[in-house]
Amino acid sequence: MSATPERAHWKSRFGFILAAAGSAVGLGNIWKFPYITGENGGGWFVLIYLACILLVGLPIMMAEIFIGRTAQKSPVGAFRDLSTPKSPWMLVGWLGVAAGFVILSYYSVVAGWAMHYTYLSATDAFAGKSPEQISSIFGELYTNTSLNLFWHGMFMLVTIGVVIGGVQQGVERCSKILMPALFLMMLILFGRAMTTDGFGQAFDFIFRGHAEKLTAAGVLEALGHAFFTLSLGMGAMITYGSYLQKDDDVVSTSVTISVLDTLIALLACMVLFPITFSHGMEPAAGPGLVFKNIPVALSQMPGTTFWATIFFALIVFAALTSAISLLEVAVSYFIDEKGWSRSKSTVVCGLAIALLGIPSAMSGGTGIFGEQFAKATEVIFGEGNGKNWFDLFDYLASNWMLPLGGLGIAMFVAWRVGPEARERGFKAGSKFGSLYWGWVALLRFLVPIGVVAVFLNAIGVMPRILQVIGLG
Ligand code: TRP
């Protein structure tokens, strides 16, 4: 073997934007954001989420892409190269690799649901059924352990297959066609939703403040989701950034990705909630929201089979481009740090994640990972609020691991990286050099203070501090 092979690079900056947007846009936008918005009562939750994207997510996205592009390495190695060997900052990289394992393990189960719904749509399972009958299909799937295991396994296999193909052939080619197609499909559905009678009510629900439903846990969820939806806090964007050329623009790339991602999330809400209200369904329907509502809406349109198949297939592809980035972090770690081949690394990591996902696939049932697990966790979350394995994994990863990782990344760039390299890196190839100090200030002060305050609030410490200093 020769010495280090030259690092693979994106064919074009456009290819990178599509791939990074492919990572960001996924189940987080279409499945998760609408349902947590529903559960948190819309309004204020959406506003706080948008503030988190702008003030916390965007600066961290720039920080991640900056780290990756500068170091030309995956997270762990990047932290080492930009500080010192054996530096404790490498912990942030390892936390990221661990978060990738955790997230993909349950993400794949949801992607499996989308695969099952694609299959149901293609075989005409929704035609001629009442809205109640269609809604009940989700419950049947959710509780069916073997079906969940099957689709989870299928999705992991496909993901492994794409990642083995390598950076350019696999990731870039997929994203180029399917992301725009998804966007188009959402626009078509949005056009449809505008004509339903629930549209006004939905608009009001999403954009008008309803403070009464918002809780400290909701704020933590909004923050956590800002990380999740932009693929931040675990080094996915560091890894993707490491395949960029040194003079690609960090700022405009980050803005483009964030705007696209936010647009699709809001669009998903504006498609789903009009349907919810028009049919007198529950906005707080939980994880089944998109799987119940879209088939109900489409079943009343001509061409149900066709449109439903396309819709769910596109969701599967959106999930795939995100899953690729989740797996890529772990895979590139073992390639860069342990000298494994790409195929060995992909197969080993992919299989490990598939195994780790088994309890998540079994979480809808009554067994030890499902209802029994939820019962046991009531000790922590209170009576009636227990979480099954799947919920617990999602909660831990999105609300704690990602914000913690993001905090580490922000602090690293703000306080540890050499100021000269940082300034040069931010300004390279960018028209937005004048934003440099604003970016550093956000990373230095607002991001750490904000994230820590939200953490303290969620643990219940913050209300006590406010009381003590006479503000609570
Ligand atoms: N952002 C993706 C979504 O919204 C999920 C995802 C992909 C992700 N890569 C990630 C989340 C890295 C956190 C970190 O569906």
Architecture overview:
Helix 3 packs across helix 4, helix 3 crosses helix 19 and helix 7 packs antiparallel against helix 15. The termini are far apart. With 472 residues, the protein is mainly α. The chain is built from 21 helices and no strands. The model has no long low-confidence stretch (mean pLDDT 89). It has a single domain, classed as Hydantoin permease (Orthogonal Bundle), CATH 1.10.4160. The site of tryptophan has 16 residues, from helix 1, helix 2, helix 10 and helix 14. Tryptophan (TRP) binds next to helix 1, helix 2, helix 10 and helix 14.
Provide a brief overview of the structure.
The protein has helices spanning 13-24, 27-39, 44-71, 75-82, 90-122, 131-143, 145-164, 167-194, 199-207, 216-229, 236-241, 250-278, 289-298, 304-338, 342-356, 358-361, 371-381, 389-416, 419-427, 436-459, 461-468.
List the defining traits of the structure above.
Hydantoin permease; mainly alpha; single chain; 472 residues; 0% strand; binds tryptophan
Binned strand content: under 5%
CATH topology: Hydantoin permease
Please tally the β strands and state the result: 0
Any low-confidence stretches, pLDDT <50, length ≥5? none
| Average residue-wise pLDDT | 89
State the distance separating the first and last CA atoms.
65 Å
Number of domains: 1
Main beta sheet, described? Answer: none
The CATH architecture can be named as Orthogonal Bundle
Helix/strand/pairing class, anyone?
Answer: mainly alpha
By DSSP (H or I, 4+ residues per run), the number of helices equals 21
Which compounds are bound in this model?
Answer: tryptophan
* Portion in helices: over 70%
CATH class: Mainly Alpha
Q: For this structure, what is the CATH homologous superfamily? A: Hydantoin permease
Shape: globular
